[in-house]
Description:
There is one protein chain. It is built from 3 helices and no strands. By secondary structure, the chain is an all-alpha fold.
Amino acid sequence: MPTRMTPPMERIQVLESIEKDIITCLHSAGQVFVELSKEKSSLKQAENHTQTFLKTLGAVENKLTEQINYLTQVSTGQPHEGSGYASQKVLQMAWHRLEHARSRVSELDRLRLKNAQNRRIAQPPNGQGFGGNVPSGSST
């Protein structure tokens, strides 16, 4: 019984398959040019290589479209099997909110300390009013 691969490994295999198809396309195109460059080229051989090129190119286009559609789904944050992007995005936003809350609490604490310090400056020491004590009986 074959073991099932993880989705990322399956994606890598699909990309490797696309790469092999591209190599086949290039080889077929090269064979067409080789055939056409001969003095006595075989039109049948050139057409066969052209058909292989076009067929493989169509397969590459379809597979690449599937990959692009997959990446579009993943990059927009839609939940997708095998993708951790949405969870990572939620975590990043949570860290951002936490950091904002920390900076806000720090700012409020700074304002609280400043306010407490201003109240201490405005209140005179115990037993003294504004204007200070003037000794009685002093003559000028």
